[in-house]
Amino acid sequence: MSREMDKPLISLHLVDSDTSLAKVPDEAPKVGILGSGDFARSLATRLVSSGFKVVVGSRNPKRTAGLFPSAAQVTFQEEAVSSPEVIFVAVFREHYSSLCGLSDQLAGKILVDVSNPTEQEHLQHRESNAEYLASLFPTCTVVKAFNVISAWTLQAGPRDGNRQVPICSDQPEAKRAVSEMAITMGFMPVDMGSLASAREMEAMPLRLLPAWKVPTLLALGLFICFYAYNFVRDVLQPYVQESKNKFFKLPVSVVNTTLPCVAYVLLSLVYLPGVLAATLQLRRGTKYHRFPDWLDHWLQHRKQIGLLSFFCAALHALYSFCLPLRRSHRYDLVNLAVKQVLANKSHLWVEEEVWRMEIYLSLGVLALGTLSLLAVTSLPSIANSLNWREFSFVQSSLGFVALVLSTLHTLTYGWTRAFEESRYKFYLPPTFTLTLLVPCVVILAKALFLLPCISRRLTRIRRGWERDGAIKFTLPMDNALAEKTSHV
Ligand code: NAP
């Protein structure tokens, strides 16, 4: 364990080859760090390169000094905390009490708590690590900061990682001092208020993609349903009714029939909540009633659902490129050629099939291209460079174009197959007919909303008009004032 701790994240040779880390001017502000682990080393490197004088307090400075940039002073804990006003506590919560012997030297100083609990610790302790530290050192001011920044980001620099540093403390002055340090180090401080927010900040690194949970489960659920449906139609039915072994289709062919279904339905689910919200507003005749919680959540997850739709569509494109590479496809081609020769047919060309395929391929490529535009513009760096109108044009109008193109792609793929009896395996309709259901409802609803009588009413509602005429106010006691109060 101790050997692993001795190993710096980035080779010390690289760190010290940066001349900015070799020496710091004497007049530079001094910062203390308690602990000499991964975080302390990365923090020291970043502080030194940002122009701070660093003094590290270790229980065994001799052992750890060689792991820090040469400009940082590594000494015993007592000596390290004596002069700096700001001291980072880079040790785990369970060792805080071992620092109590330093209470006198630390009195009146700012302690920066960078710690993160494990999930179990977070549930176990009701008070945050920072509040616990504050209770152990009542004469110090505790600031919670930098816990969401990894040792790696600190060492590599903010350009390569998360730039936001949430900060909280009960002392505004201390918070300002640490915020200024964060800015000098190239980070963006975010004021989280009093130390009571520390628990929320400590929960941040424990979350695993919270906004993606429901959309991912939704995509997985759809994938499993469509995969099972396609399996029954494409593999089970030939096996049971025709004694044909088509199980080789499971890894590529069935997956490739499933992916576009998931992508298409997910894309329609991006636009369905908007349709439901507009319908509710029209029915209620106001925009001032809250949507039900489930609709609120759905509206908030549209970006993730859209990105998952793009992911499935991109995979579908890749799988489709791979179809001709399969051995089974080559055998099928050769068998078809032999059949043709035996049947004495020289030229196989079905004009309608040729056109169908040309059109549906082209529409599919166009739909994927439009979806890629949506995905790119949902990246924060691109989204931030667009104004509100540009963003809503891309996400709303172009997104709807992508849905229409995907619908046309599906319709031309299906062509007349929905009306052929042989396509109903085990009496189950072809998969594409099922996928058309939700998107067609969305497209029809959107078309209805374009009708002047409905669109005018919807626009008025969204600008604050209400069917019942007025928002109800409690009348002021003064009569004259009451008369002046107009209906909104
Ligand atoms: P680490 O590598 O295990 O270092 C912990 C350090 O604590 C040790 O090197 C040790 O330094 C010091 N320490 C002081 N008193 C101790 C005691 N009684 N027993 C054992 N060690 C003691 O851990 P780390 O990764 O640097 O993390 C330090 C703190 O930063 C933790 O609270 C962690 O949650 C937080 N943090 C870490 C990261 C990260 O990416 N690593 C990111 C955000 C926050 P001496 O032996 O020199 O005294």
Commentary on this structure:
- The chain is built from 23 helices and 8 strands.
- It has helices at residues 2-5, 12-17, 38-49, 61-64, 77-80, 103-106, 119-124, 129-136, 151-156, 172-184, 198-203, 213-242, 253-284, 293-300, 302-322, 327-342, 351-377, 380-383, 388-414, 431-435, 437-449, 452-462, 479-484; strands at 30-34, 53-58, 73-76, 86-89, 110-113, 141-144, 164-169, 188-191.
- The protein has an 8-stranded mixed beta sheet, with helices on both faces.
- The protein is elongated, with a radius of gyration of 32 Å.
- NADP nicotinamide-adenine-dinucleotide phosphate binds at residues 5, 35-40, 58-60, 64, 90-92, 95, 98, 114-116, 147, 150-151.
Give the topology.
Elements: H1 2-5, H2 12-17, E1 30-34, H3 38-49, E2 53-58, H4 61-64, E3 73-76, H5 77-80, E4 86-89, H6 103-106, E5 110-113, H7 119-124, H8 129-136, E6 141-144, H9 151-156, E7 164-169, H10 172-184, E8 188-191, H11 198-203, H12 213-242, H13 253-284, H14 293-300, H15 302-322, H16 327-342, H17 351-377, H18 380-383, H19 388-414, H20 431-435, H21 437-449, H22 452-462, H23 479-484
Helix pairs in contact: 12-13, 13-15, 13-19, 13-21, 15-17, 17-19
Bound molecules: NADP nicotinamide-adenine-dinucleotide phosphate.
How big is the Rg? 32 Å
N- to C-terminal separation? Answer: 69 Å
What percent strand? 5-15%
Task: Give the strand order of the largest sheet, numbering strands 1, 2, ... along the chain.
Answer: 3-2-1-4-5-6-7-8
**Helical/strand content category:** alpha/beta
Mean pLDDT: 90
Bound molecule types: NADP nicotinamide-adenine-dinucleotide phosphate
How many domains in all? 2
User: What are the segments in which pLDDT stays under 50 over at least 5 consecutive residues?
Assistant: 1-5, 479-488
Please tally the helical runs, counting DSSP H or I stretches of 4 or more residues: 23
Tell me about the biggest sheet? Answer: 8 strands, mixed
Number of strands: 8
Rough shape?
A: elongated
GO molecular function: cupric reductase (NADH) activity; ferric-chelate reductase (NADPH) activity; metal ion binding
Organism: Sapajus apella
Family: Belongs to the STEAP family.
Domain Ferric oxidoreductase: 261-404
